[in-house]
# Entry
Amino acid sequence: MARFLFDSGSQESFIRNDLKNALNLKPSRQETLLIYTFSNRKPLKKTFEVFKSINIEALVTDEITGAEIYLDLTPKLLRNLIPSGCQLADSFQKSPIKSLHGLNFLVNTIAGEPAKINKNLLMLPTLFGETLIGQLPILSGKVKHSSVNISCSVLENTLRGMDTFLLGDETRDSLREFGKERKYAS
# Structure
């Protein structure tokens, strides 16, 4: 099973090279980006392979994030937050994120209206199941952090079967003009 990270702050989607190889995905082109990170004052110029499968376009990289992404919540607290019958797909164990899907992908998976769970947390229906979006309290009960948690499991075969849930070609072409820092290799 591969861990996915949905990041509404990312303008691109990324997939780890080992997952790309396991799925036998072929690149459609290369793309050069200026990568800005918290620890560097100057951007890093890097060229990525781009692949497209089931209308998911993502840049191939060896590592999604150096941070360990896990949630420090007790099962009892989770049961009190989410509606009965929901299960979180992510185990939140300290294993690497295999794919990051940014806002360019996430907005196209929304399948309905959000339901308010509490003043800081919404449940949003997506093509992958119910998604928790908002702030979750950590163990101290005082500090909160933003989190997006998928509450269903998706098999790779199901993902490969989906084929029509992203932007149309005309909209996709007009969005390519956004972000002049990109350089496309032919």
